[in-house]
Amino acid sequence: MKNHELGKFIRTHRERVRPEEAGLRSTGRRRTPGLRREELAQLCDVSPTWITWLEQGRPVTASIETLAAMADALRLTGAERHYLFSLAGKLDPAAEPEHISGVDAVLASLAHIQTPAYVLDRQWDALAWNEAAQDLFVGWLDQASATAPNLLSYTFLSPKARKLIFDWEHRAKRLVAEFRADCGRHVDDSAVQPLIADLCRRSKEFAAYWRDYDVTMREGGVRQFRHPQHGLLSYEQTTLYAAVRGDLKLVMLLPH
């Protein structure tokens, strides 16, 4: 599964890069957008056949040096580069160290946080949340359920989410890009794959955004909501990660 995801990711981004952006001359009529496989191979110092096999999802091995050259050639952002290395099962030597907090402190802090806050796991199920989050997220954290409420399922499948989330289309598209960055090396996980398949089947928007292969880190920023009782609400989102359980994250919405 990772080989196929890696191949699709590389091809999608290869087709987005113009030759002149990669320092190449654009010659002749081009039947396909972006770089040709031969051009990407030239930039990465590998054979065109190797690029073909990689994009077809064959079990070929990419060295750290080749992945770094490919990230440069495809003009990948930091999040996209991280995703590339994750899919290839390699550690990026240029990666910045993560600054994350302890799990116990994260879980214990929920009860003391006055603004909306919740904890997500790897597949973005909400494991815990405070009263402020329960009050804010109508149709998600205020509902009794036998299973952990999932943020992606709520966003794409609940009519209440579309009413609550300001500029829903923009936020939903970004959410998928953030999830792709977050699940990276675990994209074929037995818990993550069924979630992706179910959302692709039940939501045409999620399926389209997932096929875009956009990757964005959870960088925070302003989040706005049209609450049925409280009107328009605006927050600054901050996400903290746990050191001993890197799959857990504390999301806080601070008054903006």
TrEMBL record:
Molecular function via GO: DNA binding
Gene3D superfamilies, per the entry: 3.30.450.180, lambda repressor-like DNA-binding domains
Residue ranges annotated for the HTH cro/C1-type domain, each copy included: 9-81
Matches recorded under Pfam families: HTH_31, MLTR_LBD
Protein name, entry field: Transcriptional regulator
